[in-house]
Amino acid sequence: MIQEIGRFSAKWGSVLIIGLSVLFMIITFILQLQGVEEYEYYESRFHEAVSVPLAYNYCISVFFILCAFKKEWLWPVKRKIKRYFTGRK
Predict the structure, then answer these.
(1) CB neighbours of 51 closer than 8 A, spacing ≥ 6?
(2) Minimal CA–CA distance to 74: which of 14, 23, 17, 24?
(3) Is the dihedral of CA 63, 58, 43, 16 positive or negative?
(4) What is the pLDDT of residue 21?
(5) What pTM did the predictor assign?
């Protein structure tokens, strides 16, 4: 069971993280369209609520998307860009 979870995570984990980050950005955008500028986050350790601007949600989503990219996905893009600028085919 744990090996199957490991295989699934190795194969689809990055795609899942990118998908969830995009979903998080879409939800944030919908909140922004509704006029929400910040929301309350309750910190249980300190027993207080903190106001969080929606811009933080975008930053967190972009951070997770950038961290989820695999080098293997970028190699073909790198080759195409290199060929374009060097003129080789």
Answers:
(1) 38, 39, 40, 41
(2) 14
(3) negative
(4) 93
(5) 0.68
The one-letter amino acid at 31 = L
**Size of the chain, expressed as the number of residues it contains:** 89
Contact 40, 49 (CB under 8 A): yes
pLDDT in tens, 48-83: 888 889 999 999 999 998 888 776 677 777 777 777
- 4: phi then psi, degrees, rounded to nearest 5: -65, -40
d(CA 49, CA 52): 9
Q: What is the mean pLDDT of the chain?
A: 85
The owner of tokens 């073909």 is: 76
